[in-house]
Amino acid sequence: MTSHDALRRWIAQQMCLDLETADPAALVYLEEVTAVAEAGYVRSLLELGSYRPLVG
Question: What is the mean pLDDT of residues 6-16?
């Protein structure tokens, strides 16, 4: 499971959304919310003085 999947599942739980029975519009909204959460997480990491991303 990727971090995207884990975050997506956690957000779905917070929204009381069953991924297997949700309608397509709810799944699209879930993806949008997940993307915003991921972006916020990355911004938070980059703002930490002690965080050093791997350079590849």
Answer: 96
Alpha-carbon distances of 16 from 23, 42, 43, rounded to whole Å: 13, 25, 27
Residue 42 CB partners (closer than 8 Å, separation 6+): none
With 0-12 / 13-18 / 19 or more C-beta atoms within 10 angstroms meaning exposed / middle / buried, residue 20 is exposed
For residue 56, what pLDDT is reported?
A: 60
Q: What is the pTM (predicted TM-score) of this model? A: 0.79
Query: Which two tokens mark 23?
Result: 């309608």
